Amino acid sequence: MRIAYRGNFGVRHSTESHIAATLESMGHDVERCQENKVSWADQAGICRQEASNADLFLWTCTHGYANKWRAGEALEAIKSIEQGTVTAAIHLDRFFGLKRETQVTTEPWFKLQHVFTADGDNEQAFKDAGVNHHFLMPGVFDQECYLGTHRDEYASDIAFVGCHTPGYHPEYSGRMQLVNWLKQTYGDRCRFWPEPGKHAVRNEDLNDLYASVKVVVGDSCFADTSVNYTSDRPYETVGRGGFLLYPFIPCVAKELTGDHITMFAPGHFKELEVLIDHFLESEQDERRLAIRKAGSAYVKENCSYRNRLSAMLTVMGLG
């Protein structure tokens, strides 16, 4: 199958780069269309080449890049593309309940024939907005599912990886409550990544970070109320070999068990403290390693982008 994929391929760690590489590993021909460089006129031409029309136009939108082009140009091109090509968007973010929810009614990519996001808690809201939405769990690039190497510069008893500053979504207070509690309770035993003024840890370095930390504590936006939404954190962390303590979210609990991850009630910091202290005991070293190995192998086999994209293509009748 020929897929014209519009997105940001400028860095190897982007969602688009991982999805494109996965689709190619599944035997598909992927034409990467850099969103801030390929005009919509050119995009329509790429999809409607006489010799080989694309079977699927896929779009992962970067808000700042999309603004380079007029919305009218995009909608006009999409109409042309849809004359002979299935169109779909795929995105990992949550939209409703956050400032960005206005994008649902204004961004052209929500007008495509199919829209796949991890925001499964708001199906009726998507329907009311006229979006043909499909809930799709986030995943991880299967080639990055392995246990890394311990490195002293990343070592700590506890780590939190992700946004940990007051600039995080103000609609969800749980993130900063968790961050502040970790700082107050564990002090310099807990390290926060990315470090101030530095880039996020990516690629092989992230696997090594997880290999150098005994206990990783994670969070997800609206973890206290979510049923069918999670960030990609559990799959990225567990798949890359991290030992993760994560808020209990039903959609995650359906896939990952105590053999792969340990969950706590969101906001219940006393329970979290008991779990952290327990798993930091030296007697738990072998148990943590066993969970890391089992979790990484399980996620690679069952929760990678290969699994998610297979499900996506099946929904559209392209599987």
**How much strand content do the residues show?**
15-25%
The Cα radius of gyration reads: 20 Å
H/E element sequence: EHEHEHHEHEHEEHEHEHEHEHHH
Tally of helical runs: 13
Give a summary of the structure in a few sentences.
The chain has 319 residues and is α/β, with parallel strands linked by helices. The chain is built from 13 helices and eleven strands. The protein folds into two domains: 150 residues, Rossmann fold (3-Layer(aba) Sandwich); 160 residues, 3-Layer(aba) Sandwich (Rossmann fold), CATH 3.40.50.
Could you explain the architecture of this structure?
The protein has about 325 residues and is of the alpha/beta class. It folds into two domains: about 150 residues, Rossmann fold; about 160 residues, 3-Layer(aba) Sandwich (Rossmann fold). Helices cover about 35% and strands about 15% of the residues. The strands form two sheets. Strands 2-1-3-4-5-6 form a six-stranded parallel beta sheet, with helices on both faces. Helix 2 packs parallel to helix 4. The longest helix is centred in the last third of the chain and has 18 residues. The model has no long low-confidence stretch (mean pLDDT about 95).
Task: List its salient traits.
single chain, 319 residues, alpha/beta, Rossmann fold, six-stranded parallel sheet, five-stranded parallel sheet, 37% helix
Summarize the topology.
Elements: E1 2-7, H1 15-25, E2 29-34, H2 40-47, E3 56-59, H3 63-66, H4 71-81, E4 86-91, H5 103-106, E5 114-117, H6 123-128, E6 133-135, E7 156-161, H7 174-186, E8 190-193, H8 203-211, E9 213-217, H9 233-239, E10 244-247, H10 250-253, E11 262-264, H11 269-279, H12 285-302, H13 305-315
Helix pairs in contact: 2-4
